[in-house]
Amino acid sequence: MTQGSGKPPPPFALQRALGGFYPAAALLAALELDLFAALAAEPSDAPTLARRLGAKDQDRLAALCDALVVYGFLTRSSARRYAPSAEAARYLVPDGAGYIGPIAPVYGRFFRGGLDFARAVRDAAPSGAQDSAEDAFLRGIHPSALANGRDIAKRVDLSHAATLIEAGCGGAGVSIALCRVFPGLRATASDLAPALPVARALVAEAGLADRIAIAEGDILAGPPPGGPADAVVMRALLQVLSPADAATAVANAALALRPGGSFVLAGAVLDDNGLAPEDMVGFNLSLMTLFDAGRAHTFGQHAAWFDAAGLSAPERAILPAGGSLLWARKR
């Protein structure tokens, strides 16, 4: 359509892009204020909630709460008392069964990084590099690591596995989740030295220090410690590596596997056309802003790395949040 001919297109994509910022901003503000924890005991109006939080501006707080009602995180009674929605009670209240509150600062960095993507493009470098071994970062992503471990247990047949290696383990959340599901499983979780104190602490807090060994290992320097094992898992690792380093990591992981053993990867994987899953297309901008070599590689790239490492063609499951599980056997 040429300019000035016919009816102009409605600005749907523009409205979606500009309006999509506000739910995330409201949620992160609420988590930073501990708003959901403050409302968990009993519903409260804005003045009462402001006193409980030590907030000086009850009008702004009421506006935030109303936005959270609209976005599905709070409910509001006829007396204008706010309470967590059923979803918020499960995931955003500290005692909730699926509590993810510690990840809020991490997402805050991801969002701020995404908003600064223009500078990363201009400078060909991260605009705000993230230290992936930082204690707060590792504890922040721990709930999602546990969730990925549960996803793996549901979707990948690991019934044959007695020994497991988690390479690039971070806080060892995948090992913890899988050892909880499979009582006979023993794991070795390895990473660079700065990540190990948090991993040891989280494993001890889970009561699994007798079944999960923590070891120093550099997946780019050689096979991870603990092999030969029945299964090797990696989570959110290849997405912070260059293509060449990602290929090396997969090859070294495969060297730690017994023949017929399972290799499982969880993380950001794009379709070969680069346009899906939609959540990962957006997340890719944050990866490229916060990590020196960060990017979501394509499924085809992963399949080529698997093949070169002596693994079978990978199977894939796309998780509800857009991340992928890939799994294969060692030939």
Short description:
The protein has helices spanning 12-19, 21-32, 35-40, 46-53, 58-70, 86-91, 104-115, 117-123, 135-155, 173-181, 196-205, 243-255, 278-290, 299-308; strands at 74-76, 82-84, 163-167, 186-191, 212-216, 229-235, 257-267, 269-270, 297-298, 315-318, 324-329.
Distance between the termini: 54 Å
Shape: globular
Averaged pLDDT: 92
**What fraction of the residues are assigned to beta strands by DSSP?**
15-25%
Gyration radius from CA atoms, angstroms: 22 Å
Number of strands: 11
Q: Strand-and-helix sequence, N→C?
A: HHHHHEEHHHHEHEHEEHEEHEHEE
Biggest sheet overview: 7 strands, mixed
What share of residues is helical? 40-55%
What is the topology, as strand order, of the major beta sheet?
5-4-3-6-7-11-10
By secondary-structure content and strand pairing, the structural class works out as alpha/beta
Number of DSSP helical runs = 14
